[in-house]
Amino acid sequence: MTASKDPLDLNSLRLPDTGQWAKVPRKIQKRRGHFVIVPWSWVERLNGAQGKTYSVAHHLLYLSWKSKGAPIKLPNGMLQIDGISRASKWRALAELEQRGLITVERRRGRSPVIRLQS
User: Fold this and answer.
1) Residue 75: CA atoms inside 13 Å, Cβ hemisphere, count?
2) How many whole angstroms separate alpha carbon 12 and alpha carbon 105?
3) What are the Cα distances from residue 48, in Å, to 44, 51, 101?
4) Which residue(s) pair with 113 in the sheet?
5) Helix (H) or strand (E) holding 113
6) pTM score, two decimals?
7) Which of 69, 70, 59, 64 is nearest to 93 (CA)?
8) Beta strands in 24-101 (DSSP E)
9) What is the distance between the alpha carbons of residues 59 and 89, in angstroms, rounded to a whole number?
10) Residues of the chain predicted below pLDDT 70
11) What pLDDT, on the 0 to 100 scale, is given for residue 30?
12) Three-class DSSP category at 112
């Protein structure tokens, strides 16, 4: 007689461990250690914001802090890593501008220039 294997045995269903995992890019590794300080006035004005507006606002606050208050160019690349599409970026910028948190200099075919309001 031969011993039959249990088809529900979890150990027989595991893939062999090759020790190879996907490498996380250095740029993303560095970002994971960063943080954002959000002014309370922004928290109040962002109350009830739609979609990805909070994510774009946090991204802008971080970039403003890194640029020491200089105007910010906002390309699509890093936002795409955070799951924010080009269309979502523009909707969020319009909402932030409507709420009086930023001013947007739109430039055809180029990244917008953002200035934060106090």
Assistant:
1) 3
2) 60
3) 9, 10, 14
4) 73, 105
5) strand 113-116
6) 0.75
7) 59
8) 72-73
9) 11
10) 1-4
11) 84
12) coil
